[in-house]
Amino acid sequence: MFTVRAMVLTLVVLLAFVLVYPTLTTYLQHRAELQALRSEHAAAVETNEDLRAELERWDDPAYVTAQARERLSFVMPGETAFLVVDPDAVVEEEPAAEGAVTPEAGGSTSPWYATVWESVEMAGEMEVGQDTADPTGPTTGEDPDATAPASDG
Fold first, then answer.
1. Which residues contact 101 (CB under 8 A, 6 or more apart)?
2. pLDDT tens digits, one per residue of 26-51
3. What's the pLDDT at 90?
């Protein structure tokens, strides 16, 4: 049944398998890695093209104006801005008080940048040597009104 020829043929096939198998598995692994890198590169190129298109849109003054209106709620001089609120999305709350919001009530009627500018102006009006420390006095325990001790003499 088993002849010498069959045994030699089986030995040759087994030897070929042992020699080719590691090379074949390495080849297939590298091929899969290459395919993954190609798809990653294609995604990176697409993202890059999208970012370049976004950058080119910012060169258009009309796009910049539209973004300022949309994102920052800016209006052109002479225009009146209206904010439309969906009544279904707003939770009903008791009105705190009649009339406009006052700064004393915790709100502000001016935009944030006006408040920042007022703060800068107030800081600029302060004198250079003015002490802004704790108004209760020094924390070292010394009396600021005390004079130098008199000599016994």
1. 107, 108, 109
2. 999 999 999 999 999 999 999 999 99
3. 61
pTM for the structure as a whole: 0.39
Q: Is the dihedral of CA 43, 44, 47, 48 positive or negative?
A: negative
Provide CB contacts within 8 A for 144, sequence distance 6+. Answer: 137, 138
Residue 71, SS3? helix
CA-CA distance, 25 to 8, in Å (whole number)? Answer: 26
Average of pLDDT values for 92-114? 66
CA distance linking residue 27 with residue 15, whole number of Å:
19
Q: Retrieve residue 75's tokens.
A: 């209006």
Residue 123 corresponds to which tokens in the numbers above?
């800081």
